[in-house]
TrEMBL record:
The keyword Magnesium does not apply. The chain holds residues 1 to 241 of 444 of the full protein. One of its GO terms (molecular function) is ATP binding. Residues 2-237 form the ABC transporter domain. Keywords: ATP-binding, Nucleotide-binding, Transport. This is Nitrate/sulfonate/bicarbonate ABC transporter ATP-binding protein. The keyword ATP-binding applies. Transmembrane segments: none annotated.
Length: 241
């Protein structure tokens, strides 16, 4: 579905030469999977997510969506951010409707789909609230509703549970997993960035590990995980794509 070929990223540094954040990397996101990108802070996870989701361009190499170069391809993706990134001046419902509005969906359909999605994420009755009136966990539920309401082919998540307390994160994670396992989550694949190894193992079918040196993908792992969940995807024998 999404394939990166030898992508690299450099950032210009004011006082020094440019630094390489991602060294040449190949990876794919496959329909039906939850793929986790695991690595310590600063290892280049968000940079990788931005390149795969089309938010930024690689310095070298190419990202393909459905085998077309990203610039020529049409693909519906959504991103959930650690900081929720809600519009504070809009109500919960208006936040969820926003991406549908941007896509030109008519007001009635917009409203219906958004209200349904709010129910799915456990926020029935909160449509008129403003983000500041909600707890962190509820705000992230709005973030999920807003991301899922467009039925993205790939749902990207950048540390979506990191700003939440442990218990809230645990609840939200297991609810998300339940939606995914029930096949009620309207997306074909999930790409999640995390620094939490437990979270990666719990959620993912496949894990890619970024090493401590920026952009260094660890290729020295050979791990066989026994996954408790019944999944259609290939059993994975190698953590690295
Ligand atoms: P992670 O998400 O794993 O914490 P990031 O992708 O955010 O890592 O960052 C990787 C490295 O790239 C870090 O050293 C960070 O400081 C640097 N970096 C990220 N974005 C920029 C930018 N826009 N300009 C310069 N350096 C950046
Ligand atoms: Mg990050």
């Amino acid at each position: 579905m999404i394939r990166a070929e030898r992508i690299e990223k450099y950032y210009a540094q004011p006082s020094q030469n440019r630094i390489q954040v991602i060294s040449p990397t190949d990876l794919s996101i496959i329909p039906g999977e939850i793929l986790a990108l695991l690595g310590p802070s600063g290892s280049g996870k968000s940079t990788m997510l931005r390149m795969l989701s089309g938010l930024s361009r690689p310095s070298a190499g190419q990202v393909f969506w459905h085998e077309k170069p990203i610039g020529d391809a049409e693909i519906n993706v959504s991103i959930v951010f650690q900081s929720f990134a809600l519009f504070p001046w809009l109500t919960v419902l208006e936040n969820v409707e926003a991406p549908l509005k941007a896509r030109g969906v008519d007001p009635e359909t917009r409203r219906e789909r958004s209200l349904n999605m709010l129910t799915t994420v456990g926020l029935e009755g909160f449509q008129a609230a403003y983000p500041k009136e909600l707890s962190g966990g509820m705000r992230q539920r709005v973030g999920f509703a807003r991301a899922l309401v467009v039925e993205p082919e790939v749902l990207f998540m950048d540390e979506p549970f990191s700003a939440l307390d442990v218990l809230t994160a645990e609840n939200l994670r297991s609810e998300l997993l339940e939606l995914w396992s029930n096949k009620t989550m309207p997306t074909r694949a999930v790409f999640i960035v995390t620094h939490n190894i437990e979270e990666a193992v719990l959620l993912a079918d496949r894990i890619i590990v970024l090493g401590r040196n920026p952009g260094h993908i660890r290729t020295d792992f050979k791990v066989q995980l026994q996954h408790p969940r019944d999944r259609k995807s290939e059993p994975f024998t190698n953590l690295v794509d």
